[in-house]
Amino acid sequence: MKDMMLAMILAGGQGSRLGPLTRNLAKPAVPFGGKYRIIDFVLSNCANSKIRKAAVLTQYQPLILNEHIGNGSPWDLNGRDGGVSILQPFASATEEKWFKGTAHAIYQNLPYIEAVDAEYVLILSGDHVYKMNYEKMLNFHKEKKAALTIAVIEVPWDEASRFGIMATDENMFITEFAEKPKEPKSNLASMGIYIFSFDALKKYLTIKDENGDGMIDFGHDVIPRMIKDQEAVVAYPFKGYWKDVGTIESLWEANMDLIDPDSELKIQDQSWRIYSVNHTMPPQYITSDAKVRESLIVEGCIVHGEVCHSVLSMGVRIGKGSLVKDSIIMSNTVIGDNCVINKAMIGENCRIADGQTIGDGQTIQVVAESSVVGGAE
After folding, report:
1. pLDDT reading at 101 higher than 90
2. Cα 232 from Cα 247, distance rounded (Å)
3. In the chain, how long is the greatest CA-to-CA distance?
């Protein structure tokens, strides 16, 4: 990238709304789409946008996430002029440094940003599924001579109160911003994607509010203060697929979108590939008795039964006479014979005994990782 832009990826969230799926796992590390983890999308966006320097800020249950990222080689982030760093909270002699919020997490790592000497800082969430060219957003930021650019997307009005909502003038400069308003004035929502000019970022992360408190959160603290100070804060309109997969329902929907041939989320698009760690497993094996339709089945799977409109991750086994419908089965789970799995999300390394029924086809049934259902060995 012509002017150095550093990506700071916030990946420390607990993801409590994903229930048992994040009991021992950071939300960005949750498996997705058969062969990916959620964070693969933002890392792939960085690679495709020609960003070569990134840092991932972790906090909750970071082990698997750290192992997955490694040295960044699957996303070409291990080159001579680039690299990926894992940044975790730490304690000094005077204070503990647990991240209290999004802005506080970046504030604690200002020395790292200064050492990189980036002119622009791209701040991203590690738990969203989308494809986006950050280079185009940076060009927009420069054209507007902005201190801060926020990527925005129009959301349904009945969902607007879940997001940071803003109003803009005719030139896309933000005039009002409200974090999760009860009565939103618009449906233009923040995507949690920010580009700061570094001087502005440092200024606003190091000032205090009227109570003498520091900046904790971008949506609650930093953005309203910058608008109040009449800084150049602009909205970058995004058209395309974007989903915050922070709930069981949204995670299930995003997986199902991969199966929909009309969905805007096209992982087969070779011009904007989604990269991940290659586990080098043997090819899938579909037996002569199996029936498979409208499904994603990846490497290492063995299917004896019927799979309809579902996603099977690596190493999954489906027994004889079993039906898997409208479901997501995560890696290395074994489903016995004559089972019915209907609208469920089953975590990694589960064992489902013969003859079990999970899900009623109405609400999403979730089975935590490493569970044993029905006394399976």
Report:
1. no
2. 34
3. 71
CA-CA-CA-CA torsion sign (359, 297, 25, 244): negative
Helix (H, G, I), strand (E, B) or coil at 204: helix
Q: How far is it, in rounded angstroms, from Cα 155 to Cα 166?
A: 12
For residues 319 and 296, what is the distance between their CA atoms, to the nearest angstrom? 17
- Report pLDDT digits (tens) over 258-309: 999 888 888 888 999 999 998 889 999 999 999 999 999 999 999 999 999 9
**One-letter amino acid identity for 9?**
I
Q: Name the phi and psi angles at 361, rounded to 5.
A: 80, 0
Nearest to 150 by CA among 176, 117, 119: 176
Kindly report whether the global pTM for this prediction surpasses the value 0.70. yes
How do beta strands 164-168 and 174-179 pair?
Answer: antiparallel
Token output for 291 = 């029936």
- pLDDT number for residue 257: 95
* 110 Cβ contact partners less than 8 Å away, ≥ 6 residues apart: 202, 205, 206
Q: What is the DSSP string of 80-111?
A: TT-EEEEE-----SS------SHHHHHHHTHH
User: Which pair of tokens denotes residue 246?
Assistant: 């922070």
Partners of 166 in beta bridges: 177
Q: In the chain, where does DSSP find H-type helix?
A: 39-48, 63-69, 102-108, 110-116, 134-143, 198-206, 223-228, 248-259
Q: Tell me: the pLDDT tens digits for 39-80?
A: 999 999 999 999 989 999 988 888 888 899 988 888 888 766
Mean pLDDT in residue range 316-322: 97
Locus of tokens 């972790």:
58
3 state SS of 162: helix
Confidence of residue 376 (pLDDT cuts 50, 70, 90): very low
User: Quick one: how far is CA 5 from the chain centroid?
Assistant: 20
